[in-house]
Amino acid sequence: MKKRISVIGAGSCGPETEAVAERLGVLIAQNGYDLVCGGREGVQRAACRGAKSAGGLTIGILPGLEFSQANEFVDIPVVTGLGHMRNFLVVKNGDAAVAVEGGAGTLSEIGLALKSGIPVVAIGRWSGIEGVRPAAGPEQALDVLKTLEDR
Amino acid sequence: MKKRISVIGAGSCGPETEAVAERLGVLIAQNGYDLVCGGREGVQRAACRGAKSAGGLTIGILPGLEFSQANEFVDIPVVTGLGHMRNFLVVKNGDAAVAVEGGAGTLSEIGLALKSGIPVVAIGRWSGIEGVRPAAGPEQALDVLKTLEDR
Amino acid sequence: MKKRISVIGAGSCGPETEAVAERLGVLIAQNGYDLVCGGREGVQRAACRGAKSAGGLTIGILPGLEFSQANEFVDIPVVTGLGHMRNFLVVKNGDAAVAVEGGAGTLSEIGLALKSGIPVVAIGRWSGIEGVRPAAGPEQALDVLKTLEDR
Amino acid sequence: MKKRISVIGAGSCGPETEAVAERLGVLIAQNGYDLVCGGREGVQRAACRGAKSAGGLTIGILPGLEFSQANEFVDIPVVTGLGHMRNFLVVKNGDAAVAVEGGAGTLSEIGLALKSGIPVVAIGRWSGIEGVRPAAGPEQALDVLKTLEDR
Questions:
Q1: d(Cα A57, Cα A29) in Å, to the nearest integer?
Q2: What is the mean pLDDT of each run of 10 residues along chain C (151 residues)?
Q3: Shortest CB distance from A84 goes to which of D107, D115, D129?
Q4: Is D2 on the interface with C (CB under 8 A)?
Q5: Cα–Cα distance for residue pair B44/B52, rounded to 1 Å
Q6: Which of B32, B88, D31, D126 sits at a 20 to 30 Å CA gap from C130?
Q7: What pTM value is reported for the model?
């Protein structure tokens, strides 16, 4: 089984954050990881689009019970009906998580990941939280992910 | 997105039931469906083995939080940490479910499927439950599944 | 902590089934048990009404996230947001379960209870399921519950 | 139905934090609220002890499936089997949440609360998170809670 990286972040965002997420998705696929995310919009969709453009596999852990909630770049949608509790499954279905900006939902994912032993790399807003590994951008995030694997 | 069939049934079983489940997995893949199951042993493992032998894709919705819970024929393991509640996600991640024998866990999946609008075909033990469509074996189960799609 | 009995059954029902559920609620309270249910209508509401009329305590494990989902005889509503998965919590929050008629949802609760070691007594429709203890009515259901406790 | 306050915070803590949590529990009960918490140790247990000493009602939303997980000051234990996902139910079963110190688990509860519209007051560590209302101690936390109700 390939290693998986969970991408978490803003559910709606501007073009700059989207570009960061898309580049992150490209790098995740190019480095041989599968991509896990919440399957929806904003950072999730941009990261999936990036991963697909580089031939990667994308798994979307959806909050609701309808496959149609998934964005068009999700290969494997998984319905949960768990609402915000599905945030835990987004991070637990990866081997590590990368946050790109985001609000309270992303903060909850960071807390749940740290609590349950999933390493978290953050670009932007939440990079100062204790226990989170900060990264200046997608390239540096991948560098941190590789460091984690070497251990 | 391809249609998906959830296979539910005994978590441990003898060679006859296993042969039925494996044949069911083969037919599911040959008919162009992805296979969803609980990702573990018995009927789940046999059905996955069948689907893989016919070039299909297998998704395993696991009760725990460890990928290692999945049998070796699962392509996409999904951890849930939901224990028996994951039974609901096994059936809701398919478009229809086929039961092969099974005990109380399978019964709960049948109840959850029927309650939430997922058609259920049953081979063996639970085929007499009201609302369940009985099938004599894997071939007939596939016939019933096709009838459902035509509607 | 007092022993708890979970009452499961039809979400909407006629006056006869309601009378059975209400009488069951009365007996549960009179015998010193707390009552757990799904907190909503039909058998759940009637059983709560019975328990309250006899001075009992009622706990309602709700499918959604709004306290207002609870019927007016629930003392302690608990929101879950789990939808049908909350059925598992209805039975696991009791020491035993009593089913009064009911459809596929009740069937799923019976399966989940049996799977996870919760004894099930059934009045009416599902009393013939293997592993379920049949009871002719509320009084006999209480007799069976006492037998369980003596073990 | 009485208003409910969820108390979240460190699962194990020193005597100073415990004293803060216990005082908070006393004030919650004295002000006519029911207390909701995760039902276990540290801040949760101290807050329950405080609430009980002032005649309050305590509800413990447990991560596992055993009632014995609850501390001795929990009146109504609720098993969930959801592990860390139960954090969401701890905050959603209250009308507002008060955090007393705490680590990544508490952070996840804060994120989940803010995301789903539950106001959060924090004493200590997490009081600087955007969207959280800081309080210097239990008395001030109650003042903030009353402000929320007046709106």
A1: 7
A2: 96 96 98 98 98 98 98 98 98 98 97 97 95 98 90 58
A3: D115
A4: no
A5: 12
A6: B88
A7: 0.97
